[in-house]
């Protein structure tokens, strides 16, 4: 089991470390690269994964429901516990509800389960993003902006991918190869970009970050157990849901906090320290996923 955990986690942290060390020395401008990842590579990967013949939209309904329950339960459990974090509920709850599914979750599930795990990883990403853009932003701002959903290319990539799988459409080989090549750059570039972002971050309100980070991991694991009790899953889907619960808070939480002026320093500290704590908790999550 130790070698399995090491083979999954070490490549993730090694690539993040490369991005971190390189950015500390060179300080590259990754704005354009990150935009290409989000606008092109990510939607392409979602379409390719969901349009594969191995993806069954009907069979994925239980997993989709369990993912939604996990996110919402994390918020419900976290609401009365927010006062112990040192942050307001508006700042704390989105961090508790939404993990870093893109840069950490997708590589983690891909390394844990191989190509068979990609449809589950993509479902997690889409569900998490849609709820993050609506519920998460609504918690911080006090209102929901539905344009962040229907104008999102990830949503349209999901719709097209599911429709392609349902209708069993076959792409020309040259097009399928091209899309696969574009999607394959996503995982390493996301990890390098995450390392670069951590290198440029300033840690403030450290004690709030520590308390929030520990609370979040406890809340999310409890929510995962409750979600699995309500919607029993087996095998890969059960493991993927547990891995989702062990992810550090999403970096996007800081962007929302900064935009809506909701204790951005405390949220930044929670995000950064959450990633450091994941060094200890991700191996636990992998052990629980494969136990």
Description:
By secondary structure, this protein is mainly alpha-helical. The protein has a single domain, classed as Na+/H+ antiporter like fold, CATH 1.20.1530.20. Helices cover 79% and strands 0% of the residues. It has helices spanning 2-26, 31-51, 61-81, 89-97, 101-113, 118-141, 147-150, 153-167, 173-184, 186-199, 206-230, 235-245, 252-260, 264-290. Helix 13 (252-260) runs antiparallel to helix 14 (264-290). The mean pLDDT is 82.
Instruction: Kindly state the number of beta strands.
Output: 0
Radius of gyration: 18 Å
The end-to-end span amounts to 9 Å
Low-confidence stretches: none
Please give the count of helices. Answer: 14
The outline comes out as globular
N-to-C order of helices and strands: HHHHHHHHHHHHHH
Percent helix, as a range, is over 70%
CATH topology: Na+/H+ antiporter like fold
Quickly name the level 1 CATH class: Mainly Alpha
Give the helix/strand class.
mainly alpha
Major beta sheet, specifics?
A: none
Question: What percent of residues are in strands?
Answer: under 5%
Q: Any guess at the CATH architecture?
A: Up-down Bundle
Mean pLDDT: 82
Count of individual domains: 1
């Amino acid at each position: 089991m130790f070698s399995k955990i090491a083979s999954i986690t070490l490549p993730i942290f090694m690539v993040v470390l490369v991005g971190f060390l390189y950015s500390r020395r060179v300080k590259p401008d990754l704005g354009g690269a990150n935009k290409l990842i989000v606008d092109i590579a990510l939607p392409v990967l979602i379409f390719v994964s969901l349009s594969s013949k191995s993806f069954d939209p009907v069979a994925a309904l239980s997993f989709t429901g369990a993912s939604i329950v996990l996110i919402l339960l994390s918020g419900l459990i976290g609401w009365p516990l927010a006062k112990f974090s040192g942050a307001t509920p508006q700042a704390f709850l989105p961090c508790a509800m939404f993990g870093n599914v893109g840069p950490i979750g997708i590589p983690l599930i891909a390394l844990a389960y191989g190509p068979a795990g990609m449809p589950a990883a993509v479902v997690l990403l889409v569900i998490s993003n849609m709820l993050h853009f609506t519920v998460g932003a609504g918690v911080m701002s006090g209102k929901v902006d539905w344009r962040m959903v229907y104008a999102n290319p990830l949503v349209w990539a999901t719709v097209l991918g599911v429709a392609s799988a349902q209708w069993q459409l076959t792409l020309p080989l040259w097009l399928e190869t091209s899309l696969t090549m574009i999607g394959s750059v996503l995982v390493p570039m996301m990890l390098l970009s995450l390392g670069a972002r951590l290198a440029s971050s300033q840690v403030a309100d450290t004690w709030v970050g520590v308390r929030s980070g520990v609370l979040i991991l406890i809340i999310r694991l409890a929510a995962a157990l409750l979600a699995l009790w309500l919607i029993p899953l087996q095998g890969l889907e059960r493991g993927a849901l547990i891995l989702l619960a062990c992810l550090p808070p999403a970096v996007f939480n800081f962007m929302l906090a900064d935009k809506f002026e909701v204790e951005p320093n405390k949220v930044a500290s929670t995000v950064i320290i959450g990633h450091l704590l994941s060094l200890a908790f991700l191996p636990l999550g992998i052990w629980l996923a494969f136990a």
